[in-house]
Amino acid sequence: MYEVWRQKLPRVKPFYLIKCNSDENVVKLLAELGVGVCFDCSSIEEFKLVFKYGVASDRIIYAHPYKAISHICYAAANNISVMNFDSIQELSLFQEDSPCLSGSSFELGVTVHSKKEYLDADGNVSHVKYIINDGIHGSFNIIRYDIPLRPCYALARKASDRKTEVQAVNCSLMSPSCNDLNKLSEKMILPLFEIGDVIVFPNMRAYTLCLASTFNGFMKPTIMYF
């Protein structure tokens, strides 16, 4: 099939989406085909997988609509220089500090790594879409079983001089995965969080972690015992 591709489309370079099938034998075979086959990666773990089989950085594109700062830093440190951008807000991530993730099997801490604001006719923020670094394929898998999200609260503010009283707005909460199941909630009233803020979801119930997966290369949260 690859030889047919080369004959029919000699100027078109294929990029294999790791998230479609991350089986190591498939990745190894494609890597061994040489510079004619490139890879579409969307997370640090997917970068590591293709690097494991000797793929050079110039054969990789970082493609994800909502990129975490830590993943951007990893790509830059490993000379992955080609990536896509879906919004102006995403470009601002290069000027942000790296967020951290903390969590446990009972209380889950997530970081806001991207957001998109929608304005009304008067120019005021009417709705905010927050993208966090955990999702329905991870710790929020309970949503698949029609279990609603617990009320959440802000654990920490990135800016030390931010006011205690903040505006609350209509929000939607999104997970970082690249598929149609990334909506965690479409109607929530939350503060105007900034990129880097930490949100805590208490009492995440049993099976939160044991049913979680690393789909799309996003790792499960670190467990901290208190």
UniProtKB/TrEMBL annotation:
Keyword hit for Transmembrane: no
Pfam families the UniProt entry points to: Orn_Arg_deC_N, Orn_DAP_Arg_deC
Domain Orn/DAP/Arg decarboxylase 2 C-terminal: 104-204
GO MF term (any one): ornithine decarboxylase activity
Source superkingdom: Eukaryota
Orn/DAP/Arg decarboxylase 2 N-terminal domain: residues covered: 3-99
GO biological process: putrescine biosynthetic process from arginine, via ornithine
One cellular component term from this protein's GO annotations in UniProt: cytoplasm
Keyword Lipid metabolism in record: no
Annotated keywords: Lyase, Pyridoxal phosphate
Cofactor(s) recorded in Swiss-Prot or TrEMBL: pyridoxal 5'-phosphate
Family: Belongs to the Orn/Lys/Arg decarboxylase class-II family.
This protein's name: Orn/DAP/Arg decarboxylase 2 N-terminal domain-containing protein
Organism: Phlebotomus papatasi
